[in-house]
Amino acid sequence: MWTKNMEKKKTYPTLSKDIKTEIVIVGGGITGALTAHYFMKQGMRCVLVDKSNIATHATSASTAILKYEINQGLKNLMSQVGEQNAQHAFLFGYQAVMEISQIVKEINSSCDFSFKPAFFYTEDPRQTDAMEQECTARQAIGIHCELFTQENNKDEFSFNFESGIYSHYGAAIMNPVQFTHDLIKFNVDKGLEVFENTTIVDYNLSSHQSILTTENEFTITADKVIICTGVNALEFFNHEKPFCQLYRTFSILTKPVDNFIGGKDSCIIRNDQKPYTYVRPTLTNEIVIGGEDLAIDRLDGDIANMGDRDPLALQHYHQLLRRVRKMFPQINEIKTACWFHGLFIDTKDGLPFIGKHPDYPGAYFNLGYGSNGILNALIGAKLISQDVAGKNPRELDIFKFNRY
Ligand SMILES: Cc1cc2nc3c(=O)[nH]c(=O)nc-3n(C[C@H](O)[C@H](O)[C@H](O)COP(=O)(O)OP(=O)(O)OC[C@H]3O[C@@H](n4cnc5c(N)ncnc54)[C@H](O)[C@@H]3O)c2cc1C
């Protein structure tokens, strides 16, 4: 869905000789692109490889809602990871949205980045007190948000809700595929080397120097290895008890609609149901609606291997379409332009895994698992590049492996 207005995408060669570098980044989705950007800023020699093409996996399926709030909520997160860590995690997300906007400017990206307000709401009257406490906790750390109730704010929304938190800042939308391509191109012009269709099949990892082997039996010798392979990184942790949950998630993009108001100032909308639904506008008046997440217990099972037109997938798309029609009754006709589904990983606390894993001291992992994959990718890129530069950021502790 993100490629329809894009000019022909730039392609990169396949690795065809042995090379040496300071930093090798495995994975050319949005996480690899951001990671390369932060290392390039430090003036380091970087190589990025991808087993297929740039931005064709989770990044191309993403609805690309950038929002500071972690699905668990701040109060809940405090009880899981402690008050300070939870507050840091929320503020990191808040700043990360600003940082992405600065990168968009710096690289002159045509990814349609746009700040949006965000509305997180409940239809359950029993949740109103909890919603109020959540809002107060966020305000206490400087997040610009307020509590809305149906009683006071109903005219500003086309759908029913009991109460909700309206965040004026800390959220945005963009085209993640365009952004990833623009970011990689910007850094290639500054010396980043990129190889597509280059699969790493063997990792000989060491804290001093690692050797990665491609399926064509070429080697990349690097001082530091940063693994940004998203869902594929699970192959490193097969032997562990589940430390995260894999889901298949569904989205619909509608055809352009007249007068999409939906929520105050065309905000991004998410409800508190399980599974949740989220809705966001595009700059060309389409609506993106997503959710209907299905947990995956077996990688050889039906949900893990579902095709595009699987009857179960169609059921979930129709369910999303019914929801969006119910939420926006003032729109005469809502028609589907395209639908798609993809895999994503959530964690118990909604936070990503960033840093070294005790079993692989020779590599850093930037795994934006959790509620906000894209913002987590930026947070990981920043912290890992700081760590490699010897700054030892203490915040890595919040996102470390084995924290629960
Ligand atoms: C339907 C859907 C909706 C989503 N909506 C949102 C949202 O609204 N907001 C948000 O923040 N996040 C969202 N996410 C999550 C977000 O899209 C992901 O967190 C993000 O795109 C992950 O980017 P990535 O670069 O880590 O992974 P990917 O884009 O999957 O890239 C990983 C890359 O690694 C490469 N690779 C894997 N193994 C190897 C190997 N051995 N050798 C070389 N290369 C390899 C792959 O080819 C791939 O290109 C959504 C995800 C889905 C599926």
From TrEMBL:
This is Oxidoreductase. The lineage of its organism: Bacteria, Bacillati, Bacillota, Erysipelotrichia, Erysipelotrichales. The keyword Amino-acid biosynthesis does not apply. Keywords: Membrane, Transmembrane, Transmembrane helix. It comes from Turicibacter faecis. It comes from the Bacteria. PANTHER family: PUTATIBE OXIDOREDUCTASE (PTHR13847:SF201), SARCOSINE DEHYDROGENASE-RELATED (PTHR13847). The chain crosses the membrane at residues 21-40. The keyword Transferase does not apply. Residues 23-385 form the FAD dependent oxidoreductase domain.
